[in-house]
Design goal:
Blueprint: E1 6-11, E2 20-25, E3 33-42, H1 45-51, E4 68-74, E5 87-90, E6 93-95, H2 101-104, E7 115-116, E8 128-132, E9 136-138, H3 154-163, E10 171-175, H4 179-190, E11 194-199, H5 204-212, E12 217-220, E13 229-234, H6 240-248, E14 249-257, E15 278-281, H7 287-297, E16 306-310, H8 314-322, E17 329-333, E18 344-345
Parallel strand pairs: 2-18, 10-11, 10-13, 11-12, 13-14, 14-15, 16-17
Antiparallel strand pairs: 1-2, 3-4, 3-8, 3-17, 4-5, 5-9, 6-7
Helix pairs in contact: 3-4, 3-7
Length: 346
Amino acid sequence: MALANITRAMVLEGPGLPLVMKSLPLPVPAARQVLIRVIACGICRTELHILDGELPHPKLPLVPGHEVVGRIADPGAPGGRFAMGNLVGVSWIGYTCGACRYCLQGAENLCEKGLFTGYTLDGGYSEYMVAHEAYCFPLPTGFDTADAAPLMCAGLIGFRSYAKIPSSAVKIGIYGFGAAAHILIQVANFQQKRVYAFTRKGDVASQQFAMKLGAAWAGDSLQTPPEKLDAAIIFAPEGSLVVKALEDVDKAGTVICGGIHMSDIPSFPYSILWEERSVSSVANLTRKDGSAFLQLASEFPIHTSVKTYPLLRANEALEDLRHGRLQGAAVLLMDPLTGNATPSAG
């Protein structure tokens, strides 16, 4: 079937502005790129940081979105990785140079020339997108649904954060129980860990959600857990939680900051860092992380809790995320494209 010559997409024209639906020319894959017909694209808190201008220098105008599940609509030149119709996932990491000191050390997530989907490359808030084939993940049968989209970032970044915790850690605190946490708790339970879930003050619904998913304890971030933690992962973008997590972890405890943006961390006494506690951040992810997580996901069923929206309601989905009106993840669906908005000219 011949492709249309346009794709409808939600576009960011500048920080602080709502997304606008536009009809854009169908993107043409360059060398070693593929064209993807997007099935679903998850909504990530990173998009809020981009829209709010907290992440500098995005590509503008920009099509956001980096939790993409879709099928190959044009595999590019013969001999490439994929064939027409193959199911693929696209995540935050969109391109690395392979030649800088970080790439050569196996740390492509820190590449000096790295490009990122939905930030410095157009992403998946669109019916079609192009991606570098080397950075697309082949997906198994059954992953062609909205449920799979959050795995491509919430799952992957959560897994990279989790992998930075010592394997001996059993009591793990998760601060900010959203899209990443509701996936990660399933991995932790599978590996017989105990998860302590921290939410916004008064967010009883998220606490109940965490307990339903198998948390050993759930409370708000001002509360003290019933026992000292071996490690903590912070997904909420609130710098004061670093101090709180240091107070909650035991000797030699590890605190991992899993977000791409966080408010300033207030000063704190050295005594809560002493006794070999440590604080570390997670920056982006590698393709190796993606392969390892997807392999783990094939070993036991990971269930995602999603609320779906048609593409043209992306602004509504983002505001629901901003104001904590979601349990789990928000996902945009490209087909059918329904609603009342009319695309503007690109």
